Amino acid sequence: GGWRWLLHEDNGTAQLNETSITAVELPAAVELPTAMAPKAETGTTLSTPAIETSETTEAIPDQPEAVVDGEEKAIVQPQATETLATEQPEAVTRVEAKPITTPFADPIAIQSERILRAQLTHTLKKGEPGEKLGSQIAMKGEGLIRVYLFTDMANLSGETLYHDWYLAGKRMARVKINVKSDQVAASSSKFIDKYMTGDWRVNVSNGRGESFVSAQFTVTH
Prior knowledge:
By secondary structure, the chain is mainly beta. Helix content is 0%, strand content 46%.
């Protein structure tokens, strides 16, 4: 039960009467199914149906980002890393210094086929010449040297040969050789001192002026 106040207007004066109110019990609220429950409408939302496609979309790997002016972002493609070849030190070849040598110049000119061999030398051993001398002969500080002209001859038996030694065109010596065999070796020599340096020539000829061999050389200190 409870009280309800009724307001009556009587002659412009509102009076309040107290009446007895009987409480009416209302039935319990019926819970509606979810599907029937009213939905609050806040606006109409259109759903877009999904579009199926047969194309395959490949996943794009994340690209590094770079901030430009603090706001915009630009995609920076990774640059290929250039591999620099490491320069290998060059192999160093050690070259030993060698003394400068003058190419050998043979001072001999053979002018007859009957001269088998001819050579300038400083020494003779058992009739055979020693070291071969070239067109430049140095005294190497010695006050006196000896130079031989060695000849090996054939088919000159009975001939008389002359070895003429010239310094600067002047004959300094003449050596006479009598050939007594068809196969024979003969030599002549000249002592040269430090005052006799210069251009020398030796000529081998017979009495008729026929030349067989000659040698030209220069003596230096």
